[in-house]
């Protein structure tokens, strides 16, 4: 399925037979109890369990397309300090990483909670995520952060390397 997100919700398109599904086949997010219709969907990712993760400026949501159940993650919950989610990435081991307005989070399937990965004074909006050769690259306003996923999975500890203007990275820092 192809998912198209906008300010009102999302639409699925089945590329195999070129049909579009509306109404009872797929609920618009504005029809789901926990969804704020003013939230723009910025990014969508499907996890290993078949849930769809939806990033928006207002919150992060996990959606079950089959049942219509929506789980919302926002500032009303303990341990969450972001105003919105900006990007979502499923790494090569199936872990869901979320770039937010307050740094990097990942989803812990064991506890069904988000875990924040502290970045210290460099913390800020993570606007893009991509993995290459065992490294997770984080595009940020003040530069680029890199997390060695191999070391993270071996030790469980998060250590970032940062690259900014002093390293020749021409970001949007002032």
Explain what the structure shows.
The protein is mostly beta strands. It has 1 helix and 15 strands. The strands form 4 sheets. The protein has a 4-stranded antiparallel β-sheet with strand order 4-5-6-7, with no helix packed on it. The protein has a 4-stranded antiparallel β-sheet with strand order 8-9-10-11, with no helix packed on it. A 4-stranded antiparallel β-sheet has the order 12-13-14-15. It is globular and about 50 Å long. It starts with a strand and ends in an 11-residue tail after the last strand. Mean pLDDT is 81; it is low at 17-28.
For the structure shown, list the relevant keywords.
4% helix; 1 helix; mainly beta; 15 strands; 44% strand; single chain; 174 residues; 4-stranded antiparallel beta sheet
User: Which spans have pLDDT < 50 for at least 5 consecutive residues?
Assistant: 17-28
Report the helical percentage: under 10%
- How much strand? 35-45%
* SSE series: EEEEEEEEEEEEEEHE
Sheet with the most strands, sense and barrel status: 4 strands, antiparallel
General form:
globular
As a whole number of angstroms, the C-alpha radius of gyration is 17 Å
Count of DSSP strands: 15
Summarize, please.
With 174 residues, the protein is mainly beta.
Sequence-ordered SSE layout with sheet pairings:
Blueprint: E1 2-5, E2 10-14, E3 19-21, E4 41-46, E5 52-56, E6 60-63, E7 70-73, E8 85-90, E9 96-100, E10 103-108, E11 113-117, E12 126-132, E13 135-140, E14 143-148, H1 149-155, E15 160-163
Antiparallel strand pairs: 1-2, 2-3, 4-5, 5-6, 6-7, 8-9, 9-10, 10-11, 12-13, 13-14, 14-15
